[in-house]
Amino acid sequence: MGCGTWAWGNRLLWGYSPEMDEQLQAVFNHCVSAGVTLFDTGDSYGTGRLNGRSEALLGQFASAYEGANRDRLCLATKLAAYPWRLTRGAMHQACAASAQRLGRPVDLAQLHWSTANYAPWQEGALLDGLADLVEQGQVKGIGLSNFGPQRLQKIYPRFRDRGIPVTTLQVQYSLLSTYPVTELGIRDVCDELGIRLIAYSPLALGILTGKYEIGGKLPSGLRGFVFRQLLPGVQPILDTLNAIAIFREKTMAQIALNWCLCKGFIPIPGAKTLVQAQQNTGALGWRLDAGEVLELDNAVRRSDKQMVQNIFQTR
């Protein structure tokens, strides 16, 4: 398991304020001490003037931490495919800026999204620049995000021919977002190419925690709008999660995260509080049995709704 840091600095969707920083440091400390050493951020994280805040906080917390597993930290960042990043040199500069905010070299650099859906001509230089980062010793490894199997197979030779492995691929994956596997077949291609799959938004923005219900208080803004659309159609999933959680004496979130682990993904749930971080790490050290996984899979098939897919996700 890893820890996602999208919320660190994001006011619009997650209500971040600097007063949260002490609690976020506690989140970081707990995760690392519990063996969760992969932290995922992005150079586009942080709204408005707080852009880059997630990377800066992550670097600050890593520098201050002195406990167990410190030498196993892996700080991964996603470099945005902004329209003005047109050359391989732009990726070099982006990675250097991220390293400066982190206060240390980037361990895993990832292209945040594919431009294939709107500007396929832009992508080649960005991918070449990503590969350069390994050859230049700026990063230990590289990864991709929001690439589907067809696009992945098309661009993979660029890295293979340079002898540079693609370490990871991130896709939106959860009980409410099975599209990358069931519709695209991404897992088979990644298994063939030796790429580890990372599941972002594995708790579907919080719906799978069981905290929200029809007629109850929902988050404000965009999350509340999404929840109102989804909740009526996903009750079979929530009911099954709850039943297994009661039987297992776990939380619904822990069942949802463990399901991702059973599917061979590395989930990267976010956490804004120590309690949330403790809940997330409570999904480790045990496994759902085959029957429970099947029950959840069947509940997915009975549900009428799935999360809206990332607009940058390619086929």
TrEMBL record:
PROSITE patterns: ALDOKETO_REDUCTASE_2. Gene3D superfamilies: NADP-dependent oxidoreductase domain. Pfam families: Aldo_ket_red. Transmembrane segments: none annotated. SUPFAM superfamilies: NAD(P)-linked oxidoreductase. Residues 1-299 form the NADP-dependent oxidoreductase domain. Keywords: Oxidoreductase. One of its GO terms (molecular function) is oxidoreductase activity. It comes from the Bacteria. One of its GO terms (cellular component) is cytoplasm. The keyword NAD does not apply. PANTHER family: AFLATOXIN B1 ALDEHYDE REDUCTASE, PYRIDOXAL REDUCTASE, CHLOROPLASTIC. This is Aldo/keto reductase. It comes from Leptolyngbya iicbica LK.
